[in-house]
């Protein structure tokens, strides 16, 4: 992190992930499988990008904003899957409440990732176009 302290987004993301995924595991919530699969896929791409940066492969830097966009799409896809597919009686009432808590956490992530994306890629690009 080059001496930087973590953003609130990073803290929220990692603390929330531990809590929500633990609840889903502990209560054996079936509806979490697609979110887990999507999350694994996105993290494979994201950590491949980080490895490319560590190896100083300059060509990977151009995909940085697409990794963030992919994270947002992953979160929205998981949200859709949870709310459309896994309603009672597919899940127990307790498990469905846990899925709703998970979904609330996901919406916080969508909001913060979107603001991060806008501030770092959209707003910055507009500013550089006006200055250029």
Please give a handful of descriptors for the protein shown.
mainly alpha, 132 residues, 4 helices, 77% helix
Describe what you observe in this structure:
The chain is mostly helical and 132 residues long. The protein is built from four helices and no strands. The chain is elongated.
Q: Please, what is the average pLDDT?
A: 89
Question: Distance between the terminal alpha carbons, to the nearest Å?
Answer: 31 Å
- Low-pLDDT segments: none
Number of strands: 0
Question: What spatial form do the alpha-carbon principal axes imply?
Answer: elongated
In short:
With 132 residues, the protein is mainly α. The chain has helices at residues 8-26, 33-54, 64-85, 93-131. The protein contains four helices and no strands.
Write the layout of secondary structure elements.
Elements: H1 8-26, H2 33-54, H3 64-85, H4 93-131
Helix pairs in contact: 1-4, 2-3, 3-4
């Amino acid at each position: 992190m080059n001496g930087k302290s973590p953003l609130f987004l990073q803290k929220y993301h990692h603390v929330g992930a531990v809590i929500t995924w633990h609840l889903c595991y502990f209560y054996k919530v079936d509806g979490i499988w697609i979110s887990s699969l999507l999350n694994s896929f996105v993290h494979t791409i994201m950590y491949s990008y980080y490895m490319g940066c560590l190896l100083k492969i300059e060509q990977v830097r151009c995909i940085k904003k697409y990794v963030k966009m992919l994270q947002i799409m992953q979160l929205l896809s998981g949200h859709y899957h949870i709310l459309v597919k896994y309603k009672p009686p597919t899940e127990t009432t307790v498990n469905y409440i846990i899925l709703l808590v998970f979904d609330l956490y996901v919406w916080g992530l969508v909001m913060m990732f979107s603001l991060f994306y806008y501030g770092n890629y959209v707003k910055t690009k507009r500013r550089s176009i006006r200055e250029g």
